[in-house]
Amino acid sequence: MRRVPNLTILGSADIKAFEGGAQVGERFLGMAERDFTISSKAHIIKEYVPREISLEIGRLLDFMPVVVLTGMRQVGKSTMLVNDPRFADREYVSLDDPIFQFSLRENPDSELSSYGRMTIDEAQTEDDLFRAIKRALAREETPGRFLLSGSASLPLKKATAESLAGKAIYKRMIPMTRREILRNIEEEPFLLRFIRKPKRARNLDIRPITDDEVMRGGMPQVVLSPREAGDIWLSGYEQTYLERDILYLSRIENLIAFKTMLRLLAARSGQILNLNQVARDAELNYNTAKNYLGLLEELFVIQRVHPYTRSLRSGIKKSPKLFLSDAGIACWMAGCSSLSDHPLRGFMYETYFLENLMGILEAHCSGWTVHYWRVDETREVDLVIDTREQVVGIEIKTGEQLGNKDLVSLRTFMKATPECQLCILAYNGGEVADLGQGIWAVPLGLLLQ
């Protein structure tokens, strides 16, 4: 496959009017003047909303010969790779394009050598690609030579581990964060500043997190569309996109039972995973349910959060918490038409918070890990961030008011975890308050700002 002649993709007036005036307009105009491959034009959009992880991807391309961007399908990977000005000097191809796929299979070395700095989308679909990349790097290894993208974790990691050990680094794109949706990614995230130096703040102009935000989640086709269009997209996500990856990986014996299991997991998002119970409810044997769970994790539809056990104290729960990767999909598949007085409301807020937290950490904090802590029902902390230098406990409340009972678990955690000197009680109020003994009350809207 070769490049197509220049086409008028965006008008310069449209570009300069887009978010930020002349400076941003000039960057987008430069992108409009580049040569586009046939496979890239499907992803060109007029009103691209910048993604926070693009800066980190750009930084890694300055050092590593191969950068692999993963994430669940339809999270916005291709849109970013084609539209973000940081990648405007790269040549984009996709293995969804049958012409490129045929050329790669017939003569992979010649095909890759005909390109400069390449972005290859849907890379998980072609195993021979990685061996060809290995040979290309043996001939000439330069930083940023290949940027690969795909929506299935295991095939990508297996292929790169076998062929590109020591030459590739992975980053995961999360559904859109609140910062991205509100076009507010220029400033450093408040959470990171607060972890470095907690301080009081009052009379803040903060938008509280709403039930509607949680139910919409962060999938671009939902949050950037009118409500009705977003609902239609959610209703078709399972069949239109998820089944495509399922059929590619070809490990589903009973598609109906698989879908039932996914809905059961959605209703348990934010809770400790009991796979035996899920298997029984889905009428699956344990091993089949375990395989399906692994598949959903490979597709980034779910993620497991493991308990914080650095101190190796006995009595701490060892089972992971399970989360769907997007709160909007979780609410839809769990059948939540409203979160008002819904028994899953707190769990869905926790799912939404984690989704946003992971987006911030992927873009800014390589090496930080997220856990939870639980001994029993009266001694548990929703999320625990391990920065390698300190440990931060976070308890998530959906209400605007706080009481003494809300502090019990955080105090217990700090007492049991000497390395924890800071805990955050996240609530939907409007004031940052020092509650004493290293515990702070911080508005949810501010933590995700």
Structure description:
The chain has 449 residues and is of the alpha/beta class. The protein has two domains: 12-172, Rossmann fold; 178-447, no CATH class. It has 21 helices and 14 strands. Strands 9-10-11-12-14-13 form a six-stranded mixed sheet. Helix 15 packs across helix 18 (327-333), helix 16 (275-281) crosses helix 17 (286-298) and helix 18 packs antiparallel against helix 19 (345-364). The two termini are 43 Å apart. This is ATP-binding protein. Residues 65-182 form the AAA domain. It comes from Candidatus Solincola sediminis. InterPro entries: AAA_14, DUF4143.
Which terms would index this structure?
disordered N terminus; alpha/beta; six-stranded mixed sheet; 43% helix; 21 helices; single chain; 449 residues; five-stranded parallel sheet; 2 domains; Rossmann fold
Give the helix/strand layout.
Layout: H1 12-17, H2 21-32, H3 38-41, H4 53-61, E1 66-70, H5 77-83, E2 91-94, H6 98-106, H7 108-113, E3 118-121, H8 128-139, E4 146-150, H9 153-163, E5 168-172, H10 178-181, H11 190-196, H12 211-216, H13 220-223, H14 227-249, H15 255-266, E6 271-272, H16 275-281, H17 286-298, E7 302-305, E8 321-324, H18 327-333, H19 345-364, E9 369-376, E10 379-386, E11 391-396, H20 408-416, E12 420-427, E13 433-436, E14 439-443, H21 444-447
Parallel strand pairs: 1-4, 1-5, 2-3, 3-4, 11-12, 12-14
Antiparallel strand pairs: 6-8, 7-8, 9-10, 10-11, 13-14
Helix pairs in contact: 4-19, 15-18, 16-17, 18-19
Domain AAA: 65-182
Pfam family, one: AAA_14
Organism: Candidatus Solincola sediminis
